[in-house]
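Re-run with default settings, no changes from the original entry. Doing this only to confirm the output is reproducible before filing.
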Amino acid sequence: MSPIQTRLGRGLLLLVILSLALSACAPQTAFPTLVIPTLPLSPTSPATSTPPPTETQNLASLPDTTPEPSTQNTPSLDYKDASLPVPQRVASLLGQMTLAEKIGQMTQIEINSIKDPTLVTQKFLGSVLSGGDGEPNPNTPEGWVAMVKGVEEAALKTRLGIPLIYGIDSVHGFNAADGATVFPHNIGIGAAGDVPLAYEIGRATAEETSAVGIQWTFSPVIAVAQDIRWGRTYESYSENTQLVTNLGAATISGLQGDKLSANDSILATAKHYIGDGGTAWGSSTTNNYQLDQGNDTMDETALRALFLPPYQAAIQAGALSVMASFSSVDGVKMHVNKHLLTDVLKGELGFQGFVISDWGGVDQISPDYGAAVTAAINAGVDMVMVPYDANKFINTLTQAVQTKAVSMERIDDAVSRILTAKFELGLFERPLPDGSQASQIGSQAHRAIARQAVAESQVLLKNDNAALPLAKNTPLIVVAGLAANDIGIQCGGWTVGWQGHAGAITTGVTILQGIQAAATGKVEYNRVGNYKDLPSGAQADVGIVVVGEQPYAEGLGDKADLSLSQDDNDLVARVRPLVKKLVVILISGRPMIINDALAKADAFVAAWLPGTEGGGVADVLFGDKPFTGKLPFTWPKSNGQLPFDFSQPVKDALFPFGYGLTK
């Protein structure tokens, strides 16, 4: 029995209900026809919010005006009574909080911006995060526990002792931690199309992340990516709304477990609300980005039909955190779109959790920081990922409340939502990490789940001349390509660092090592295809060439030309005459233009970004497991076809959505 089968008991009933409710697709069949209900337009709300006001006073330079908390009365501690209903605990605590304590709860700062933990105590900070490069030194379980514990202890020294909620981007496992299990990125899970598997990956991710005391992940991305030139395509499960809906809800259920307050559960975040997968090329104003953080120009009916169902399902699955998108809708930044954040998300969809801004997202609203903060909070942002200068944000929002630009009702609503999540998580009962579950990080059970996910995610695009499966006793297999033996490349971005990077960055099995472990014959590897054991004029029985993309993340991966590099095409051409059968494996965060390499290959495999368990690639190459993966994205013949217009049937793709050979 597989590790997944042995661990399904806790969530089996939930998954059955979820699968029935969301019409989840079976893992070994083509994906279902898209049938998504469209919510009606709000009859009383405009399509977009009013742009932020222009404010005459820049508040960034104001002195610290944070009032001291009242210490005249001894706090009532009934909010610490876990037997009381959460709404009662929230009301009790909120009623005792000063404005400074409330605004502190709405403030999230990055760990590297905390030079002295007393900042957490003095400013009553509600949250700390590790950003993309926010690992401890040393990057060990003990280092993580010490780092998280230090700021949590500082929070408990405040008058009311409200615990911090610590956040991180565990987007394909506890991927910031050296030695953790790194699962395939979401595009690979989309190719697998396996809802119970997505749940189990969520469970394993929660178990590893919570082992160091981190209670919150900024995942999953439930964007429905429409243009594969986007640098975050690999963070999207699919171009298909139904598939994203099914897998996103299952992942959230896995992350949060059967009971959110359990020691091994963490708060999930549905992101990025809303439309981040549908921005227009060239519409971004951030750095040299083209699509990331850009603008959606579709009307609201289309926006709802394409992008809203995953959020409906996320809320039904219990999500209590939603991250606002950097992107805009019809020119209005999502961070100030009150109609979509408050009227639709919190009103129509009934979202009871809190909205977190993206990294410095409020700063993008207006050059007038006071106007930006006011507009974002009034639009429905509840917690602000600052992430550098807590004093600047706290002073600015304090002044906005004092001048009545932001109402106390809005502040109380935001803080109530944040406190609700903290109580539901059980943070008041277990605020400090103890590190006793550190053995969960990179455990063999979790690596077995990851290996199964890798095998299920492989998509066989071509298999001529019965090239696959390979016989394990093949006399000589030659392997080429830098990516064949590089754990960093096969993990991709968001791995021990924001952008990820090539090299032996963490513990795992490379594709080459997986092949070597499976084969009983000789395996010879040369990165550039020069084989010393191959006599002149002779051919190896099989050649395997691994090609593809270097690691990247977010807008730095926006790319107009998705052609396989000339070096990779040359490598395929160099190995082709040296072998009787040629297998090409593509490591990438999206479909690429592969025509030349595809024509030369007997077999071609889309491996996506498989993570640390490269043995899963070998499992399908040698027939230990069947090919079941299906394309979660339509595959183009040329760059000129991009972006596809999915409002019409795609007639000239290289491979259609849902394509995948089984043998």
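The chain has 21 helices and 17 strands. The chain has a mean pLDDT of 91.
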